[in-house]
Each structure stands twice: as C-alpha cells, then as structure tokens.
Amino acid sequence: MTAGKKGPGGTPLVVVISGPSGVGKDTLIERMAQLGYEHHVAVTATTRPPRRGEVDGVHHHFVDVDEFKRMIDRGELLEWAMVYGNYYGVPRQQVRDALARGRHVILRVDVQGAARLRSLIPEALFLFVLPPSMEALREHLVARGVNSDADMENRLAAASAEIEQAGLYDCRIVNEEGQLDATAAKVKAIIDRESKRDPPRRIAV
Q1: Shortest CA distance to 156 belongs to which of 129, 176, 138, 144?
Q2: What is the DSSP secondary structure assignment for residue 124, as one 8-state letter?
Q3: CA distance 53 to 60
C-alpha cells in the first residue's frame, strides 16, 4: 500500500524513532499525544512480560513466543527482532490502516529494526533520540529498575554501539533533561516539515 495524496496537513508519513534503552522514547511519544499532536503510535507485539502500569493493547500487545512465531509465519509483522532476549514486532495492518486514514505512523524500534525498515520503507522518516550524556542515561536506567551491575554495563555498552549508528538517521534529537515539551515540539516540527516536502516522500507498506 502507498500513502495517499498530500492533503492540507501534508503526506502521511511512517516515522521511525530509535534511541538507546532509557533515553525516554516512550515518554517523549506519550507527551506528543498529550499535547494533541496528530499521529498514530504503532502498538508493537512483544513476548516480554508487562512492566508495572503497562496495559495490553495500549503499550504493547503482549503475546507468548508461540503466538509471535505464528504472526511471523502468517506475514502479519512489518518487521521483527529479538531484543534483550524478547521478541518485538510491528503489526503490518495497523500501519496500513492508519496511513489510509491520513495519519502519520510512529514506530518505536531499535537500530536493528530501523535497518530492516530502511530497506522496506526507504522514504520513511528516521529519527534518533540521544541522551544529553551517558551519565544521564545511566540514571534513567537505575530509575527504571536496572540494578544489576552486569545488566547495567550491558545496556550502556549497547547504548554506545547504537549511538554510533545515529549518523544513519535523517535527524538526531537530544532529549534534554527537563525539556520534554521542547523536545516534543522539535519532533513535531521535523515531521510537519517533511510531510510537506516537494516532491513528497513515497511511503509504501
């Protein structure tokens, strides 16, 4: 499916957002919704257990490994990957339906998923969220409950490797401490600008 013609609000885009664990991707996207920005956040399927406060169908579709593999076999996932021992995937039909309604679709994926999406949807908009510092990232991981030294070091090492790939993205945004609304506004401005680009991005899913 190809996104429809450009309307008054611009061409509906697939916006791929990546960044290291603990950088605040989910918080940023949730704040964009609270501020009334028009977009659809794709609800990913995952085999990891829900974190405290997470709701099935809102934060993720929580499924077991067998069901996830059936989704792969049925071709229902636009892309999928294993991250920290759990499967994550983006339901294809959900993306198509949102684009057909003229809404931008935000996909939260890691750098592996972004690389696959770059080959599948080369004209998607790729954004990378950076921490203001590695120490700030460490503090966020501690607040999330990553207490073991080994797990912390693994995640920080993975973060460093991911940040090295930030140059492959269209835009990089630093999620400054205490500046969430400003960061959300920057992301919205980038999406607005790119959705009105001429010639438009051709989004086929």
Answers
A1: 138
A2: S
A3: 12
Q: Are 140 and 131 in contact (CB under 8 A)?
A: yes
In a domain, 122, yes or no: yes
Mean of pLDDT over the chain: 90
Query: Where in the sequence is the domain holding 116, given as residue range(s)?
Result: 14-42+102-195
End-to-end Cα distance, the chain: 5
pTM for this entry: 0.85
- Distance separating alpha carbons of residues 164 and 17, to the nearest angstrom: 15
DSSP 131-168: -S-HHHHHHHHHHHT---HHHHHHHHHHHHHHHTTGGG
pLDDT at 88 over 60: yes
Query: What is the identity of the amino acid at 167?
Result: G
Return d(Cα 93, Cα 77) in angstroms, integer: 8
Number of domains in the chain: 1
Q: Is residue 31 domain-resident?
A: yes
